């Protein structure tokens, strides 16, 4: 019997307080990164890795997300009548990307609680969790590598990235041991947002996970941790001790859209790389920088 197809889970129930007042009525996942909402980049990444079933965990006032992935016949008809075929294709693409499902988290009780809400949809199978704050450049491999490592080992796999030690307090930090593959490490422990002096390494956990279904039983009994929330990091720490956890070290291009300054940087970087925008934007950026 073949293994069940991998499903992706995208938690999108956070309040987005760092982007107020823009996120008062607009989900932070729908903030545009150039000309697409951030969450569409994440769904496209899942599809590129061979995943066609995506569950998005919603919170209150997040209906714009489900609307974005739904069809809009009147808009599509209008674009067709005007002969705006490129715009029509871009609108239809978000609808046709994948088989997308939605479930509500209810209260924002943390990432671990959001993942637990996926249990009914995922069932007793390995699944991917993808955070919308982290955008991975489509030219760089990460999720497909993680899925391959999971398929070969049967273990939970998390994405790691080396960061400046002064920044490690912003992330979960992993204690690691090397393996035969220089891009894969064995995770022996995890600490959520440690002080620089308490961090086991400068390997930061970034927002991609391939989780085995045993994580659900652990999350069911995980008590609220840092910030009074159910932390996925705490469940991963238990898995690292009992079953084993591997880390794929990512050395490619990652865009952090969870911070206002980094969000602006992400837009500039992605736009400057585009064939339709870069030729006009890059000279302007150079001229602008020289005047600062």
- Contiguous low-pLDDT stretches (5 residues minimum) are none
CATH class of the largest domain: Alpha Beta
CATH architecture of the largest domain: Alpha-Beta Complex
Structural class estimated from helices and strands? alpha/beta
State the strand order across the main sheet: 8-11-9-10-12
Number of domain modules: 2
- As a percent range, the share of helical residues equals 25-40%
Q: Would you write up a description of this structure?
A:
One of its GO terms (biological process) is UDP-alpha-D-glucose metabolic process. Pfam families: NTP_transferase. Its EC number is 2.7.7.9. InterPro entries: GalU_uridylyltTrfase_bac/arc, NTP_transferase_dom, Nucleotide-diphossugar_trans. With about 290 residues, the chain is of the alpha/beta class. It folds into two domains: about 5-260, Spore Coat Polysaccharide Biosynthesis Protein SpsA, Chain A; about 260-290, no CATH class. It has helices at about 40-50, 65-70, 75-80, 85-95, 110-115, 120, 145-155, 215-220, 230-240, 260-275, 280-290, and strands at about 5-10, 30-35, 35, 55-60, 100-105, 125-130, 135, 155-160, 170-180, 185-190, 205-210, 245-250, 255. The chain starts with 6 loop residues before the first strand and ends with a helix.
């Amino acid at each position: 019997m073949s293994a069940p197809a991998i499903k992706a889970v995208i938690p999108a129930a956070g309040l987005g307080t760092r982007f107020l007042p823009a996120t008062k009525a607009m989900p932070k996942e729908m903030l545009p990164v150039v000309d697409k909402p951030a969450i569409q980049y994440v769904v496209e990444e899942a599809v590129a890795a061979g995943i066609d079933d995506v569950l998005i965990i919603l919170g209150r006032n997040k209906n714009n997300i489900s609307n974005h992935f739904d069809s809009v016949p009147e808009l599509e008809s209008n674009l067709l009548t005007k002969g705006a075929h490129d715009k029509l294709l871009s609108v239809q693409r978000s609808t046709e990307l994948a088989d997308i499902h939605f479930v509500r988290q209810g209260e924002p009780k943390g990432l671990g609680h959001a993942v637990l809400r996926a249990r009914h949809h995922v069932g007793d199978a390995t699944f991917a969790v993808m955070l919308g704050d982290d955008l991975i450049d489509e030219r760089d491999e990460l999720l497909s590598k993680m899925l391959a490592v999971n398929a070969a080992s049967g273990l939970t796999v998390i994405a790691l990235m080396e960061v400046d030690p002064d920044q490690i307090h912003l992330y979960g930090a992993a204690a690691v041991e090397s393996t035969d593959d220089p891009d894969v490490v064995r995770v022996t422990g995890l600490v959520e947002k440690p002080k620089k002096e308490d961090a086991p390494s400068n390997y930061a956990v970034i927002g991609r996970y391939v989780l085995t279904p045993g994580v659900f039983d652990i999350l069911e009994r995980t008590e609220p941790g840092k910030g009074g929330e159910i932390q996925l990091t705490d469940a991963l720490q238990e898995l690292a001790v009992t079953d084993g956890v591997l880390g794929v070290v990512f050395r490619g291009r990652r865009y952090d859209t969870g911070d206002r300054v980094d969000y602006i940087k992400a837009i500039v970087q992605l736009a400057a790389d585009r064939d339709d925008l870069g030729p006009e934007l890059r000279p302007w950026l150079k001229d602008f920088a020289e005047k600062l």
